[in-house]
Amino acid sequence: MSSVAAHPPIEGSRSRPWTRRAAAWAPVLACLAFALVFQALREANSDTPWLIDVCRRMLSGERLYVDVIETNPPASVLLYMAPTAFARALGVDAGFLVRMSVVAGVAASLALCAAILRRAPAAFREGPALLAAAAAATLVLPALSFDERDDIALYAGLPFLAVMAARAAGAASFPTASILAGIGAGAAVSIKPTYALMYLAPLPFALWRAGWRAALADLAPWTGAATFGLYVAAVGRYFPHYASDVLPALREAYLPWRRPLAGLVANGSTLFAGLALCVGALASRGRPRPATETVAALGALGATAAMIAQGKGWPYTGYAGAALAAISAGPALAAHWRLGARRFSLSLLALAALTFEGGFFWFDSNGATPPLAAAIRALGPHPTIMSLSTDISIGFPLATESGARWVGRENSFVIAMTARARLMADPNLPPDLAARLRGYEARDYSIAAQDIASRRPDAVLAGDADWKDGEWAAPMPAVERAMEDYAPAAHAGRAILFVRKPRLRGASR
Prior knowledge:
Blueprint: H1 3-6, H2 18-41, H3 48-59, H4 74-78, H5 81-90, H6 94-117, H7 127-140, H8 149-168, H9 175-191, H10 196-200, H11 203-210, H12 212-217, H13 219-238, H14 240-254, H15 261-265, H16 268-283, H17 291-310, H18 319-338, H19 342-363, H20 373-377, E1 384-387, H21 396-402, E2 405-406, H22 414-425, H23 431-455, E3 459-463, E4 467-468, E5 471-472, H24 477-482, E6 486-492, E7 495-500, H25 501-508
Parallel strand pairs: 1-2, 1-3
Antiparallel strand pairs: 3-7, 4-5, 6-7
Helix pairs in contact: 2-6, 2-7, 3-5, 5-6, 6-7, 6-8, 7-18, 8-9, 8-11, 8-17, 9-13, 14-22, 16-17, 16-18, 16-19, 17-18, 18-19, 22-23
C-alpha cells in the first residue's frame, strides 16, 4: 500500500490548493506571532521568577529543600532549570528565555498532536479549525500565566489526549509518537498528580471506542506510567528532604486549606470552561461529534475537577480545563458555520468571543505589589532583602521589580499561615495534630529568624497576617529578637518595609 493510502490527506488541508492551505494555517501562525511578541514584552507573573531564582541558586550549589525552601515538588522547579542554565551561560534574562522556550515547546506539542491525528482522518475532519483552536487556547488564552507550571503541564499532556482521540477514531498505533506523548503525560502528572484526572475522564470513552485490547497495546499509557514512576524514584533518591520535611507539612497544613466549594464552582476558570463547553454542545446539535472534540471536552471536565480538588482557585490552576474546553468548542463552531444556520452561528461566535476575551483577562491577572520599590531602590544598588510575609505575590515580585537581591531561604510563609489558619478554625483538633501544626508554624518563622540574624539583609518586608491593634507584631519571639536592629522605613497598606538601623541612619544623613 502506498504512503498516500496509508496516510490520507487531512480534509481541508492537503486536498486544497496551496493558497487555501496557507489560509488554513494563517490563524496558527498568527497565534504564534502573538505569543512571541506578547511574551517578550509582558511583565513577569508572581510565581515563575521565584522558581527561576531557585534554579539559579541550585546552579550555584545550594540544595533544594535545605538551603532554599520550596513547597512545590521538584518537577515544578526542574521545569525551568535548562533555560535558566542557558541564560546564565549566555548572560541573558532568564525570564525571557524561559518564556521563549515555552513558546517553542507549545509549537512542538501542537506539531506532535497534528502528526498523531493525521493518522485518524475521521477524528480530524475539522483539522485547520482544531489546530487554530488549540493554538489560540495555548498561545493566546493563557496570557500572563503562560509559563506557569500548570500551563506547562497542559502543553506537555496534549499529545497524550491526541493519542486517545486517534485510537478512539480507529487509528493504528504510532509507536514513536505514543512514546513521546506518554513522556509528556508522565511529566504533567509529575508536576501535579491531580492532573491524572485530565486523562482518566476521557479514558472510558477511549476504551469504549477503541476497545480495551487496542488501548492496552498502545505504548502511551505505559510510557506515561513509567515516566511518573521513574520521577518518584528520583525524588526519593535525590531530594529526600522533600519527603521527610515538606510533604508532611503540605499534607497536614497546606492541602486542607481550601476555598469554599461555591467559590471554586463560581471561579473564573470554571465559568470559562462551562461556557465554552456549552458553546461546543450547542454548535454540535444534530451532528455527531468527532473523537477529538469529545476527548477534549471530557479532558476539560477532568482538568476542572483537578482544579477543584486542589481547592485553591488561583487562575492558573484552572487553565487546563479552560483551554481544553476552548479546543473542544473551536472545531464545533467551524462545522456549525459551514453547515448553515448563519444567524445562530453568529450568536454562538459572539458568545465564544466574549468568553475567550473574559478568559484572557482572567488569566492576565497578577498580584499587585505594594508601592515600595522606590524605597528599596533608595537603599543603593541591588540591596539584599527577604520577607516575613505569607503572601507570595508581594515579597519576591517586589524584590524583582526593585532590583534587590533575595537572600531568604523561603519566599513566603504559606505553611505557617495555613497551619495557623487550621488551628484557629478548629480548636478541637487532636492534640498530636495540633502540636505538629504549631511545630510547622514555628519552623517556618525559625528559619526566618535564622536568616535575618545570619544573612543580615538590608531590608525586610513584613505585613498581612501579623497585624495586631493596627500595628505590625512579630509572629514569634525569635523573629522579634532578630528584628531588633531593624526599624520601619516605609509602608503601603498593610505591608511595611523594615530597614537595618545603620542604613536608616545613613539615609537620614
